[in-house]
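Handout, section B. The chain below has 70 residues.
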Amino acid sequence: MEMKISINSEEKNIKENINVYDLLVLMELDPKQSGIAVAVDRNVVPKSQWKSFILEEGSDVEIIRAVQGG
């Protein structure tokens, strides 16, 4: 089954019972890389909880990546 969530203000259909870590992999981001922050429904999810934090239908996910340079 799939569910609808918002990722960086864009609606996406993803599989149910996906955690933050697996979502990042699905988005072709390396969850082990430093400089990535994730907020769900405006609450920051600590990196230590990414594998246990299960997203729900209608979740509003913001993925922020720090980049080097100026």
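Note. The mean pLDDT is 95. Compare this with the example in section A.
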